[in-house]
Each structure stands twice: as C-alpha cells, then as structure tokens.
Design goal:
Largest sheet: none
Shape: rod-shaped
Helix content: over 70%
Number of domains: 1
Distance between the termini: 90 Å
Oligomer: single chain
Number of helices: 3
Length: about 110
C-alpha cells in the first residue's frame, strides 16, 4: 500500500468515525459525507490497490453509506413528526376558537 493510499484510507476512517460518533448534526454531516464520497471515488478509481486494502475500503464505504441512510431516515421521521405536531397545533387552535365562540354564544343566551 502506498503512502498516498494509506493517507486516503486513514482520512476516510477518521471521517467515518466522526460520522459514527453521533454528535454531528445534519449540517455537519453533509460536508463530511461529501468528503467521504470524494475519498471513496479516489480509492475506487485506483488500480494499484493491494488485495488486503479492498475489504477495508469496502467496509468503510458501506459503513458511511449506512450511516447516511440512517441519518436521512431520522431526518425524514423528524420532519414528518414536526408536520404532524404542526397540524395538531392548528387543530387545537381552531378547536379553542370554536369553544370560545360557542361559550360566548351560550353566555349571550343566558
């Protein structure tokens, strides 16, 4: 393994570890993922990789892909839940207005 390939793999491992830590928000993950994709493309384009590098590279690429899939799924679930809560809030506000109108109407009749 050349020094350049070793450097790329080491950086890819560091990025994957940073993504795995779970402390980065989606805004932080996007640049990390872009860098990870770039490094992965560099490695995939190489023709001078040794046989012992391939499983290591494959594992890193798959691990990063799985992490991004999970983060995307979490983000979608949060957006759906946020929309549901917003709809529920709107329904509650409308219900409160209706109750206030009906209460005022009943009070006027009394």
């Amino acid at each position: 393994m050349t020094d350049e390939i070793h450097r790329i793999i080491t950086e890819l491992e560091a990025i994957t570890a940073a993504m795995s830590a779970g402390t980065a928000g989606m805004d932080d993950l996007l640049p990390l993922n872009a860098r990870r994709a770039h490094l992965s493309a560099l490695l995939c384009a190489r023709r001078d990789l040794s046989d012992d590098c391939a499983p290591r590279i494959h594992r890193l690429i798959v691990e990063g892909d799985v992490l991004m899939e999970r983060m995307t799924a979490v983000r979608c679930a949060l957006q759906e839940e946020s929309a549901r809560i917003e709809r529920q809030g709107q329904y509650t506000q409308e219900l409160c207005r209706t109750i206030a109108r009906e209460t005022a109407r009943v009070d006027l009749k009394a």
